[in-house]
Structure formats: C-alpha cells, structure tokens
Amino acid sequence: MIAIILQEGWENKGYMAQYTSGFGQIRALFSDFDPRAAVQTCRLDFDQVREVCRFFATRKSSLRNDLGIFMGRHSGLSSYLIMILLAICGRISVRGGVVFPAI
Fold first, then answer.
1. Nearest in space to 46 (alpha carbons), one of 9, 7, 89, 4
2. Is residue 95 part of a domain?
3. pLDDT tens-digit map of 30-65
C-alpha cells in the first residue's frame, strides 16, 4: 500500500511537510519495490488493491491493528510499516485518524 500510494502521489504532502522529517530516506526504501508483483504473490487483483489504497489515502480513514500483529515473527517491522502508512496518509494524531483503544 505504501509503495502504491507513493508511486501515485496520493501521500498527504502538507501533513508530511508539517509533521515529519527525513522522509526521503524512507521513500527510497520503496522506490524499487514492485507492488504489482507483491499483489500478484498474494493472489489479489491489483486494480482492487490500488483502489483501496486510493480510498485510504484520499478519504477520511483510520487503521486499527491488534494483538495478532504484535505476536508475529515480524511484529517490529509490521508496526513500523503501519506507522509509515499512517504518516504518509496524514492519519496520526488527527481527529478520525488513528484509533487508540481505551485501557
């Protein structure tokens, strides 16, 4: 999703300019990534995945991850990628963005 959003230019440039720094280094990690091949590996329809990415990036949206992702083998990487996705879409610490469950 990150690679598609960046390749299509759907990232929230205003949010990124105001609230992030050094994003060029992160962007470089996705410059050679082939989202079509990744989507094909998952046996998903690329056009549908692209549309989900467009909706997530350009409309009011949020993402809630839960315990399952934290128990996986790559939980640190998964959490990092989620934060990148939320940042490029301007969803961190904004009304209607990230959901923080009550304790």
1. 4
2. no
3. 999 999 999 999 999 999 999 999 999 998 877 777
